[in-house]
TrEMBL record:
EC identifiers of the protein: 2.7.1.217
Catalytic activity: 3-dehydro-L-erythronate + ATP = 3-dehydro-4-O-phospho-L-erythronate + ADP + H(+); 3-dehydro-D-erythronate + ATP = 3-dehydro-4-O-phospho-D-erythronate + ADP + H(+)
Keywords, comma-separated and alphabetical: ATP-binding, Carbohydrate metabolism, Kinase, Nucleotide-binding, Transferase
Primary enzyme class: transferase
Species this protein is from: Klenkia soli
GO molecular function: ATP binding; kinase activity
Domain of life: Bacteria
Record domain Four-carbon acid sugar kinase nucleotide binding: where: 251-406
Function in brief: Catalyzes the ATP-dependent phosphorylation of 3-oxo-tetronate to 3-oxo-tetronate 4-phosphate.
NCBIfam families in the record: OxoTetrKin (NF043035)
Name of the molecule in the record: 3-oxo-tetronate kinase
Length: 415
């Protein structure tokens, strides 16, 4: 069985979607369970953590706890899933968590493969591209929590780990599995502990997966995990579970400020009542929440409503000037509380834009595990609660989805 630790919630749904797409049955756990549990029939377990932007020591602790739990439940192959745009800071957490996992399960050097060509993330000469732009020239340079201003992943990772980092060039990857194994051997002898792999397309991912499938630890985006799943699939294929979205009204919550989300929010505003959480206008957190709660209550008979904090950089700066340094956390908490209110009020389809935001929402809803259904857009699967009331959640990474994703997600919602 394959066990994945994902450093945020939409990263977890992304990797779960990829594994399901290649025919694996996937159980998604919200955080690491405290005790041992009887597992449903599944081929892969994804543990959703919220460790991307917390202090490194806590991220390591959370990750090791998840790894030990998975090992206790029969997992021998581990995958550490982080963002395809390598979201992290110089204080961590990708390098330090990978180091801790290597210490726990062995298998240095770790493969570092954020590339996800289906989402336009590719790596060449160790540099990460978003579409045709270098990472540092994409909107990720302005991310509210993890601004990515350096596209050279060898350099980025070297600031996060005391150990040597090197790159595996595309030419070597394309020379076949023996060349990849030789590169790994060479890296081991040179004391390299992190190997950034160039990837230009899905064929490269398949080649890499085939060459490294037997390693105890792989790390990267959803792309390599899906390729690994496809490689393992022959022994594990089964019919995908059916998917029924529950009847009932929908709620869309948006906390992501990515370009993709801003466009999706603009589209959604055209077709459903919308309320903006605006810290510049309402800097008092309590008032921000109660105003939104009143608005939600007033619109209780609408089949779908949108509440969003998403804003471009200049508006965010104005909000932060008014509300202070905790603005992002206040907005996450507010959106999470509103999700809870909406569930109590009977909303059954909850769509969330943003990884950190999704983490806060799922935590507030006290959900423990979800079964992964089909994707609404690549990397964005519907997930179903395993307890009553049946909720369908769509947890969307900020950067993912077509412009009409939020509109499509609420279609067919009943008042
Ligand atoms: N108007 C705003 N001002 C400041 N921070 C904001 C604003 N709107 C959202 N945020 C914060 O930005 C962060 C977005 O992160 P996240 O939810 O992970 O989205 P993404 O998936 O795009 O990275 C969250 O912490 C959210 O609370
Ligand atoms: O790998 C990816 O791009 C996503 O799975 C992911 O992790 C996105 O993170 P957020 O943009 O913070 O949602």
């Amino acid at each position: 069985m394959l066990g994945c630790l994902a450093d945020d919630f939409t990263g977890a749904t992304d990797v779960a979607a990829g594994l399901r797409r290649v025919g694996l049955q996937v159980l998604l756990l919200i955080g690491t369970p405290i005790k041992k549990m009887a597992l449903p029939d599944c081929d892969a377990i994804v543990v959703a953590l919220k460790s991307r932007t917390i202090p490194a020591a806590e991220a390591i602790e959370q990750s090791l706890r998840a790894q030990r739990w998975l090992a206790d439940h029969g997992v021998t192959r581990f995958y550490f899933k982080y963002c395809s745009t390598f979201d992290s800071t110089d204080a961590g957490n990708i390098g330090l968590v990978t180091d801790a996992l290597l210490d726990a399960v062995g298998g240095a050097p770790a493969i570092i493969c954020p590339a996800s060509p289906e989402h336009g993330r590719t790596v060449y000469q160790g540099h990460l591209f978003v579409g045709s732009q270098l990472l540092s020239e994409s909107s990720m340079a302005h991310h509210p929590l993890t601004p990515m201003t350096d596209p050279d992943l060898v350099r980025v990772l070297a600031r996060q780990t005391p150990h040597p980092v090197a790159a595996l060039p595309l030419q070597q990857l394309r020379s076949g599995p023996d060349a990849v194994r030789a590169a790994l051997q060479q890296a081991t002898e040179a004391g390299v502990r992190h190997l950034i792999t160039d990837i230009a397309d899905d064929t490269d991912l398949a080649a890499l997966a085939a060459a490294v499938a037997d390693r105890p630890l792989l790390t990267g985006g959803a792309g390599l995990a899906r390729a690994l799943g496809a490689h393992l699939r022959s022994t594990a294929a089964r019919a995908a579970t059916e998917d029924h979205l529950p009847a009932g009204p929908a709620l869309v919550l948006a906390g992501s400020c990515s370009t993709a989300t801003l466009e999706q929010v603009a589209r959604a505003r055209e077709v459903m009542p919308a309320h903006q959480l605006d810290p510049a206008l309402t800097p008092d957190p309590h008032q921000l929440l109660t105003r939104a709660q009143d608005w939600l209550h007033k619109h209780r008979s609408e089949p779908a409503v949108l509440i969003y904090a998403s804003a471009p950089a200049d508006a965010r700066a104005a909000g932060q000037a008014a509300m202070g340094p905790d603005t992002a956390t206040v907005l996450e908490t507010t959106l999470a509380t509103l999700a809870n209110n909406a569930r109590e009020a009977g909303r059954r389809r909850i769509i969330v834009a943003g990884g950190e935001t999704s983490g806060a929402v799922v935590k507030a809803l006290s959900l423990r595990s979800l079964l992964v259904g089909p994707e609404a857009d690549p990397g964005v699967p519907w997930c179903h609660t395993t307890t009553e009331p049946h909720l369908a959640l769509l947890l969307k990474s900020g950067n993912f989805g077509r412009p009409d994703l939020l509109v499509r997600a609420v279609e067919g919602a009943t008042p």
